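Suppose you are handed a protein chain with no further information: no name, no annotation, nothing but its sequence. What can you learn? This example shows the usual starting point.
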Amino acid sequence: MEQAPEINAPTLSVRNTFLTVLCILTFIGSGYGLYKAVTGYFTADATASVMSEAKSKVDDQMEGKEQPAFVKGMMNNVFSAMSADNIRKSSIISLLGNILTLIGAILMWGLRKAGYYSYIAGTVVLIVGPLILFGGGLVGLMGSGFTAVIGIAFIVMYGVNSKYMTR
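A reasonable first move is to predict its three-dimensional structure. Written in structure tokens, the prediction is:
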């Protein structure tokens, strides 16, 4: 009796559910970040004008009132950082970082490990960019802090799932 030849079918890598959820969340977050970056760039003049008006109102309300030096410094730091040029620069940094994280998620969706490194690069841009642009003051720390917490958490979660990325 003749045996049927054994067929060695290639094994297909399957994306697990957790990696799928992470990628979908990244698609949503990076897509929203791209939208905010583009609209922020094109509305920078209007945003800076609104911030300037708000600064004038705050100055008028605080006129003649004693303020602690750190409050004055904090307010000046926030309002001076919100110039149209800084808003545009921040939007460009955000655009670059979100493009890298989106490319990373697309590659990881296809189980490509290169996507993990692209995601890390995009997260680093999103964390370090505001610190370089705005310095270590309140605006720079606020711009980087939330991104750092979420971004590092996602880097760890993607790292745990990197064993499923076979290409």
